[in-house]
Amino acid sequence: MIHTQTKNMTEGVIWKQLLLFFFPIVLGTFFQQLYNTVDAMIVGKAVGKEALAAVGGATGNLISLLVGFFVGVSSGATVIISQYHGAGKDRDVSRATHTACALALLFGGTLTVFGLVFSPYLLGWMQTPQAVMPHATAYLRIYFLGMVPQMIYNMGAGILRAVGDSRRPLFFLVAACLTNIVLDLLLVMGLGMGVAGAALATILSQLVSAVLVAVTLMRTVASYRLRPSRVRLHADMVGKIVKIGLPAGLQSVMYSVSNVLIQTAVNGFDTDVLAGWTAYGKLDGLFWMTVNAFGVAITTFSGQNFGAGRFDRLKKGVRVTLLQAFLGTLVVSGFLWLAGEGLYHLFTGDDAVVEQGMHILHTLVPFYMTYLCVEVLSGAVRGTGDSVIPTLMTLFGVCLLRVAWILVVLPMHHRLDVVLYAYPITWSLTSVMFIIYYRHGSWLRRGMRKLTLEEVRHD
After folding, report:
1. N or C, which end of the chain has less CB nearby within 10 Å?
2. Which of 12-26, 36-50, 203-217, 424-438 has the lowest average pLDDT?
3. How far apart are the C-alpha atoms of 382 and 388, rounded to whole Å?
4. Looking at the predicted structure, is the pLDDT value of residue 122 above 90?
5. What span, in angstroms and rounded, lies between the C-alpha atoms of 395 and 258?
6. Mean pLDDT confidence for 89-100
7. Which residues is 117 bridged to in the sheet?
């Protein structure tokens, strides 16, 4: 048996608790980003810029759109389990764990079938350039064969993080990353399999991480132990998970739909712009993995403290997380600004691609700070079980405004800069909405009333 490595985030020094939880997440995300980046680097160098555009730009947003919805729904399980763990309700933790694993299998199978059938049609709808289309179609169809392992890992890692264990998901991602790098070198550069080799390396590495997380859950002695014979959909748990997770899934879809629309707009420029955008997306991942890790940290912190009734501690945690996220973003922004050109040359030797990538970087990096409140405040609110209103704010502030910008403003001024401005404008406006909603406090008052009613029913 593996002893429990759970962390009770309802006690101790807040900034230390958050950082100890944050660093394994951000390092794990770094390794996850690394093996996606290695795919792009090796394919870009070994096959060419059309293949580079396919592995990232043409397929990345589509993958985010489809996978992000199910991962978002799955996040409802993380919130529920963190609340039960904070409240010491071991039986409910177990039931939620087995329901979550059943959902992972269901979601993974659904995505595999959908991706295999509809990938070429979706790429055509996105106006993927003909030079890129064969590479992108091959990559997507192989990639979607790995959806069940990917969903198992994501759900299993979410369960571990819900109980305060962010270290073991890191170890599993390191193992997956190393596997992916070795297989990339073997399949793409050694055997000349091109984008198909990169996709195959990715799904095999995801299988490694899925097996590791499943074995860990089955061997633990804690309340979240996974017993395969008990994996089933408990109707009440499904309802609670979906109630919280469905808005999060829809929010992810909104982001992805708007990004797919932007990707479609970028596809209307030449291949140099598309390849530069793809390479920027890999560098841009340094920011997103940092801020998303703070979002995961505050969601777990909020869920455990909300479940334990530590509401003042929850609010203090939000303030600490905002400060930490600000400092982290400052470091990432400075690094990208200073090292960007050298980093681009890791992906391509084409000077025109590097020039386009640097222009994109210099336009967007100064505005990263405008997004922080969206990630941190929505994570804190979602940890209490309130996910509907944050989703509605994101619907308006991110999705609808971006769509309007691309459909109305871009046709009048068809320039790359106009496409890029959609990001800081929508980040800023959405952050303002989240600040107002958070400070109003209705999200916490509703959660407290709901918690009181559930305790009465439980008694």
Report:
1. C
2. 36-50
3. 9
4. no
5. 10
6. 90
7. none
